[in-house]
Design goal:
single chain; 342 residues; alpha/beta; Quinone Oxidoreductase, Chain A, domain 1; Rossmann fold; 2 domains; seven-stranded mixed β-sheet; 28% helix; binds zinc ion
Length: 342
């Protein structure tokens, strides 16, 4: 089968080539991949992969949508079923799994990170990783959900859910998670402030319902946020950027506000600003992926048309490197999708 295989680190180490078809282990089903989407972690795997247990060669690609071609005996899945991939192969036995929080499983493996991924014609995963795809979602739209949209869902509605009368600051609008957060914040009626270095992206976000936009190259973010919120600050900050934006993010929070992070694309060691933390009684917490129940809720919201996944550009599998370069240049607005066999 054709697959995007990382044989060694760096751009030259990733090629679209022939690779052996997966042989499903006990309890695994096989999906024919119609579409998958590009995530920041693909760049991380290509260039570093540090801290993620895996061996090369590895097929990249974390999320995807397609149809079942092979299912284990006794499975509710059957060949031809249209499904969306839940990327966490969780153990089902640990304390987190027993509590239904597969995202905190201690021994999970993830497609495209610790096991072969979805930039391939076929992928084998445990049967619980295949969730029915709603008819109203295209393969491409469904393929955007498992990483960016699920991550956004848990950030906004997980530990301390965003409420309709609150204001959220979304840092670095344009990326898949940030754009998904904007759509979800509007879904519940919250007020939104977004930041970007590009006036064009701010205009685009405005078209998606962002109430205010701040260009962080030409404006002072925290100062403007405080002014826009009547001197108070926002209730929640969603920061996927890290070091470069952290100071402004903390200074933009109201007393008792919370900062949620799921990424650190500009570095992971900003100043902690501990005096501000305790004196303003702020909360900072991390979030990554989501549980199967959160995935179900997200898919239901898309089935009802409450959220329509944003697709920036589509690439055939052979052109995956072009998509990765667009992400590397941070040019995308929404998700980059790879058409594998659709
Ligand atoms: Zn587990």
């Amino acid at each position: 089968m054709r697959a995007a295989v990382l044989a060694e680190r760096g751009k030259a180490g990733l090629t679209v080539t022939d690779f052996a078809e997966p042989v499903p282990a006990a309890g695994e089903a096989v999906m024919k991949v119609h579409a998958a989407s590009i995530n920041h972690v693909d760049l991380y795997m290509r260039d570093s992969g540090a801290g993620i247990t895996h061996e090369l060669p590895l097929i990249l690609g974390v999320d995807g949508a397609g149809e079942i071609v092979e299912a284990p005996a006794g499975s509710p899945l059957k060949p031809g079923d249209p499904v969306v991939l839940y990327p966490m192969a969780s153990c089902g036995r640990c304390r987190a799994c027993q509590a239904g929080d597969q995202a905190n499983c201690g021994t999970f493996s993830i497609s495209g990170e610790t096991r072969h991924g979805s930039f391939a014609e076929l992928i084998a995963m445990p049967e619980h990783c295949f969730v029915p795809k709603p008819d109203n979602l295209s393969w491409e739209a469904a393929a955007t959900l498992p990483v960016a949209y699920l991550t956004a869902w848990r950030m906004l509605f997980g530990r301390d859910p965003l409420k309709s009368a609150e204001t959220v600051l979304i840092v670095g609008i344009g990326g898949g998670v940030a754009a998904a957060c904007l759509q979800m914040a509007k879904m519940v009626g919250a007020q939104t402030i977004v930041t970007s270095s590009s006036d064009e992206k701010l205009k685009w976000a405005n078209g998606l319902g962002a109430d205010f936009g701040i260009n962080y190259n030409t404006g002072k973010v925290a100062k403007q946020v405080i002014a826009l919120t009547g001197g108070e600050g926002v209730d929640m900050v969603v920061d996927t950027v890290g070091e470069a934006s952290w100071g402004d993010s903390l200074r933009s929070l109201r007393r008792s506000g919370r900062l949620v992070t799921c990424g650190a694309t500009t570095g992971g060691h900003p100043s902690a600003d501990i005096q501000r933390l305790f004196s303003k009684q702020l909360s900072i917490y991390g979030s990554t992926t989501g549980s199967l129940e959160e995935f179900r809720q997200l898919i239901e919201a898309t089935r009802r048309g409450l959220i329509q996944p944003l697709i920036d550009k589509q690439y055939p599998l052979a052109k995956l490197p072009e998509g990765l370069e667009r992400m590397e240049r941070a040019e995308q607005r929404g998700k980059l999708v790879v058409n594998v066999s659709s």
